[in-house]
Structure prediction request, 693 residues.
Amino acid sequence: MRAFTQHQGLVAPMDRSNVDTDMIIPKQFLKSIKRTGFGPNLFDELRYLDEGKPDQDSSQRPLNPDFVLNQPRYQGASILLARSNFGCGSSREHAPWALDDYGFRVIIAPSFADIFYNNCFKNGLLPIVLEEKIVDQLFREAEAEEGYQLSVDLDAKTVTTPSGESFSFDVDDFRRHCLLNGLDDIGVTLEDAELIKAYEDQRRQTAPWLFGAGQ
Amino acid sequence: MAGKTLYDKLWDDHLVKQRDDGSALIYIDRHLLHEVTSPQAFEGLRLAGRKPWRIDANLATPDHNVPTTDRDKGIDGIVDPVSRTQVETLGKNCDEFGILEFKIKDKRQGIVHVIGPEQGATLPGMTIVCGDSHTSTHGAFGCLAHGIGTSEVEHVLATQCLVQQKMKNMLVKVNGQLGEGVTGKDVVLAIIGKIGTAGGTGYAIEFGGEAIQNLSMEGRMTICNMAIEAGARVGMVAVDGTTIDYVKGRPFAPKGETWDAAVKYWRTLHSDLDAQFDKVVEFDGSEILPQVSWGTSPEMVADITGAVPDPAKEEDPIKREGIERALKYMGLKPNQAITDIKLDRVFIGSCTNSRIEDLREAAAVVKGRKVADSLKQAMVVPGSGLVKEQAEAEGLDRIFVEAGLEWRDPGCSMCLAMNADKLGQGEHCASTSNRNFEGRQGFGGRTHLVSPAMAAAAAVAGHFVDVRELLNPATGEN
Prediction:
């Protein structure tokens, strides 16, 4: 996995709560058997005026001029500023894949849905929870100032504004460690293979009905 | 020391290692797979040169992309080549690694959350995961069950474990008795309407109370299925006689002495009387009415006797804007009566409501009646080949067809419209599925979430109607 340590980038504010993963990447694009190439269809139904189809050249499609990511000032944004309960609904990891493929590295919101939050860390994408009033302030600043950028430091767990104001955020130690070092967490788990085998052996004795049924 | 909650017990029984950083390795007993969220996980295994840790813990079936007609053609019946590739890829992956798969022509094929319980592959006390958020369904059996992303599908395949952080405990208690015509679906929609779509975020929810205890396993599955729509990855119900009776005799269930030992353990799978929950929410079951969603989030629900809300009366500006946006998308007016919402299509199916009891409830309403002429389509999609077989043995298919509903083959179908079954732009659908998000059932489609009985009643009327009037015309309120 790609490591994440620090990032500075342009902020795009998406002023809408309860953004669900169907909205982030609609179902017709989930038919792919790859992990890449979802960027052109990120927020497809909000971003384009027509109905998107897989394997279509999206550069020829009519854009919705009202959608934030279509505005010239937000081209090249890599930090998405969002509202509460971002990423709710379906567990599709295609949602973080699409955000990542588009070019986002950080998402800041007052709250995230659990599965989406977890999926982000598996893909080098950093979801940051900040208090609602701080997010409100960042929305005001990002909308007021063209070219508004934030600096994110995962090691120090801070988000810093252009004026130098800094906000701390929480992230649990294991996820932070994996992201900072770009670790493959399957590899980390397999370091405990003996423990897993020992647990399994004990369960075969105490709960034999859990084994063998699917063969 | 305070007693343990059901979630605490399930967690403790599956803890392989507690790490110093607060994360834990949790062992996974059952892993369910389908075609949409698994191909990249198998590819990841191959790229890393890894093998599945424990083949017999896995069970797979294609469900999201399968057509609900022409199933005798098998995979060749899938017209969309991209969908076909995905279903074929699942088949190849399962064959390569020796994983049991109920393929498209197998009568045991069906929606992954229907076939697990049906086969007894879902057993009380298990940890169960699947690359699908509605895996919470299996919590109805006193399981710790939740959806995962594709990276975690790969992680479970490779290690039989997941790295987890322990969630908080929430008890949602539904006291008293449910009224006639009020089902598990209405209960869970009413719960989400109250606590909101983020109300359960960070929690494992246990559903309890007299109204839950009186529900069948199908009703409990419907409620746990939609825990994720309240933000909770995990929904659970304690094990009782209803659970054990349902599991007994199923193909994957233990037998003989092992069964007796299992039952003894399963009987312990309930929260202790002195268990402490971080949050408790209580409902009076007798006050819950049939529910209809009017908006684009599962928390946007109203009683069938109620009306679409007026955004002008909402003080919170973010909520007001959310209501305005939803009404615009849904083509509804403030204060419009729910019964005035006219429908274009009706969909009875999905992992929420496609089990035999759901079909019985819908059939009881349409029996001897006809689907309204104004509808473009009304379809019933059973949750599995075995549900279909059972329904046909009971004559439910004939009741549906005589009433003018289409009787289809099993799959996820119009719940998320990955196959050919979808809504047209601007069409209103009474749907027994779980999500009313924008575009969920088709580009520009408008979804209203309801119970099977309410969907059936709406099919007959052509608009929403209080199912209690159809069940009991003499005492109906109107």
Q: What stands out?
A: Chain B has 16 helices and 19 strands. Residues 81-97 of chain B form the longest helix (17 residues). Chain B has a mean pLDDT of 96. Chain B touches chain A through 87 residues (CB under 8 Å).
